[in-house]
Amino acid sequence: MSEETMPAAEAAERNNYELAFHVLPTVAEGEVSGVFDTIKALITTNGGELVDEEAPERFELAYEVVKHIDGKNRKFTSAYFGWVRFSVEAEAIEAITGGVSENANLLRHMVLKLTKAEEVDAFRFHEALESEKMVQDVEEAPKAKKEETKEVEEKSEVATEKVEAEEKTEEPEKKEA
């Protein structure tokens, strides 16, 4: 076997992973990028090659998360969410996961081995949130106003019909009197 074949074989043994994480909201906004850099350095130190990333941004959590910190259970309703995709040998995952678990600035984290389909197209969480806000602001708000206007018009038509019906029934009574 030639030496040129060996690196290709080693590259085939590398897997693609995604590390998603929440940084504690108690970390100052200016220091969040430092936490992110620490995570990326941990990956590269263990032989990983960074492929893609989404820097952490603050957002409201879907539910309250409890973390035991300094002997007390603390409850959090927001965090900075980010992720990084990387390629590394399977043996290095344990070291990376262990290093991330020791990071006191993280609320929680998760490492996923990516499928071929997931490798192709990364889901950009913060972009999706922004586009969802834009859809709500631009499209749904006018629809809601249109629906409200339609309801008001329908109620107005019903009220007008009632008034006209009452006027018709009152007119003969007035003539008789």
Structure description:
By secondary structure, the protein is an alpha+beta fold. The chain folds into two domains: about 5-120, 2-Layer Sandwich (Alpha-Beta Plaits); about 125-175. Helices cover about 50% and strands about 30% of the residues. It has helices at about 5-15, 30-45, 95-100, 115-120, 125-175; strands at about 15-25, 50-70, 70-90, 105-115. A four-stranded antiparallel β-sheet has the order 2-3-1-4. The longest helix is centred in the last third of the chain and has 52 residues, at about 125-175. The radius of gyration is 30 Å and the shape is elongated.
Topology, pairings included?
Elements: H1 5-13, E1 14-23, H2 32-45, E2 49-69, E3 72-89, H3 93-101, E4 106-113, H4 116-120, H5 125-176
Antiparallel strand pairs: 1-3, 1-4, 2-3
